[in-house]
Amino acid sequence: MAQRYHVFSLPPELLDSLVPRNLISQPPPPAVSTIIQTAPPVSDNARACNICLGATFADVTEQRSHFRSDWHRYNVKIRLRGGSPVTELAFAQLVDGLEDSLSGSASSDESSDDSDAVKVLVNKIKRTSRSPSLSEERQTPLTALTWFHSPPSTQIGVYRMLFPIDTPAPSYLAELKNIQERVEGGRKWAMFMVAGGHFAGAIVEVSRPAEDQDSTFSAKTKKKPPKSKPETSILKHKTFHRYTTRRKQGGSQSVNDNSKGAAISAGAMLRRYGEKALRDDIRNLLLDWADDIQDCERIWLRASVSNRRIFLDYENCVINKGDDRLRTFPFPTRRPTQSELVRCLLELTQVKTSHLTEEALRAQDEAFLASLPKPKVAPSVVPTAVPEKAKPQRLTKEEEAYREKWSRLLDMINKGRSESLKSFWEREGASLGGVDALIPEWTGDRHASLLQIAVQSGQEDVTRWLLYELHADPTILVPSSGVLQEAANESDTSNAPPLQGVGSRRTAYDLARARAVRDIFRQCAGDHPDWWDWFGAAHVPSTFNKEREEARDEKKKQRKKGLKEKMREREARERERESKQSDIDDEQVEAKSKPRSQDSTAPRKLGGSSGAVDGVVGLTAELRAKVERERRARAAEARLKILTGA
């Protein structure tokens, strides 16, 4: 049976032989090269090599021989990789360090580059000088246990949670030796578990106090030596249970209320009461154990996120939220009971042991490293130059005044302030370029002239003033990007000019949405036909004739009046027809309601009573339907004769 060790009472001989357990398969970091690299000087001599530290030559033959040498080729490749060239002596030392060195030959050609010493040296420098990035290194997962090795074949594992949180991994061995010292009053832990309405808590002693030493046993006495006291002992413990979770459903009632709303049932009310009672019981117990908890070296807590609020972050809490002593159990736990607390205590305080040789450890490390997922090499992203944002150009006072004039002009046209517009145009019209001046792009307006803006806004007075007094050009085309699609939906009459597609050749007349604005164009075309090409380039369909327009309007009125009279006559006929039909129906109902006088001596048909039903007795369903259709047809003919007065 393997020997068990207590983490607070390890044998001194074992403790002195421990070393931190690392992955043996990891190679040591590469040593920094001691070769001093110097920047290649630039020589003005024509027979010199600026790459090979300014080497000079007596004649051209020697210079050509140097260019074919391994030393020069090596320096060229190093320079291409961003390195520094070496001297001829340093290159010779590098070649001697190779096991299978290839001597440079002046007659060697480029076909032997793949198998010579230059390639071997360059690849070697590339491997040793490259520093692997974080994404290329294999990230070894951090386990809950930290292992120590005792030669030749003993390993022990201790949970990291036993050490202070801010302790680095190289200092674990020193901390392990420090906790072997006994303290006054002994080392105490507080352990709490809560889940599913079950609670278990205990104050335990994990190391005996310094003054409690085993008394020496005299060999002369005949009594048996006393048994040594155990290292761990339970000082206080408490367990209780409340009904807080529905059977076989899981989750507390408060969590269910927060996610689905407060349930109204007897069971839900009982579970809410159980949660409150459980919280009060736990907090009262913590208050009773407050002095013992303050003396504890570690506080172990197993609770969900919602249940942690029972222990932390409330008024007059015994355990602060940021307490450095707080720990979570680094292994799975079961239902909170006293026996589970004892099991967790033994799991934390007993040292894990193994007995593997160094060869077995090395094989285990290699298998572990091979099982790790290979790192994904991040693709090299070439940084693209971000174009700088153009700084806003500062305007001069003249430019600001010019823009202010244009803004005022466009605002008056859109709002139809004709009087202010006329006085403003008399003062500033010439400075703005005239009535047909193109609207600047910085205004954000998508029209090309002032006339187009007035027409688009539906300003009749401004349009008339621009056409008659200022002689605005109606043939200027609307820019393709400025065609407004909503014009088709906002036309107030059915005879609006058909809208053309985006990018077509449109004029100011095509932008008119109101009939009154279009009539202004037609009137101007009739009054001054020689001013512009009204019926061609301006897209005006015809001139405006007042008499003809009045006659057309009168015809429309008469047509509407005639239609109304016809509708009234039709409605009168319908009402008269309905009244006659109702009278006929009433007479038929009265005739049916009067009983028929029958002679008792008259012959009767077989089958019982007489009437309409007697004629279809004994017939099939098809014949009965046919008789019924004929009867209805005769009734309809009778009604038509009455209505037509025949």
Gross morphology: flat
Specify the biggest β-sheet: 5 strands, mixed
Strand order of the largest sheet: 8-7-6-9-10
Mean pLDDT: 77
Series of secondary-structure elements, N-terminal to C-terminal:
HEEEHHHHEEHEEEHHHEHEHEHHHHHHHH
The amount of beta strand, in percent, is 5-15%
Uncertain stretches of 5 or more adjacent residues: 24-40, 99-115, 130-137, 214-220, 482-496, 498-503, 607-612
* Cα gyration radius (Å): 53 Å
Number of extended strands:
11
Helix segment tally? 19
Q: Output the structural class.
A: alpha+beta
What is the percent of helical residues? 25-40%
Euclidean distance between termini CA atoms: 126 Å
Question: Can you tell me about this structure?
Answer:
The chain contains 19 helices and eleven strands. With 646 residues, the protein is an alpha+beta fold. Helix 3 packs parallel to helix 5 and helix 16 packs parallel to helix 17.
